[in-house]
Amino acid sequence: MKKKEPSFEERLARLQAIVSALESGNAPLAESVSLYKEGLAHAAACREQLEQARHDIKICSEGVLSPFDMPAEDE
């Protein structure tokens, strides 16, 4: 079974927790490196999700997508 991908908001919250943990300076070096790598992965995923959202908005706002008009049915 495929694991559910975290949402943008979940990734952002985790990224904020990682930054707080790293800024505190209380984690051992190995754990800090691990957290840093995890943070990079979350940041890249958030960036990708934002780019996709930006792309979707651009398509909609530039009129690339147009409403689908149904032909009138004969009564």
Order of helices and strands: HH
**How large is the radius of gyration?**
21 Å
Low-confidence stretches: none
Helix content: 55-70%
Give a quick account of the main beta sheet: strands, pairing sense, barrel closure: none
Overall mean pLDDT score? 88
Strand runs, count: 0
Work out the strand percent: under 5%
Brief summary of the model shown:
The protein is mainly alpha-helical and 75 residues long. The protein contains 2 helices and no strands.
Annotate the secondary structure layout:
Layout (H helix, E strand, L loop, with lengths): L7 H17 L4 H33 L14
Helix pairs in contact: 1-2
How would you characterize this protein structure?
With 75 residues, the protein is mainly alpha-helical. 67% of the residues lie in helices and 0% in strands. The chain is built from two helices and no strands. It starts with 7 loop residues before the first helix and ends in a 14-residue tail after the last helix.
Features:
75 residues, 67% helix, 2 helices, mainly alpha
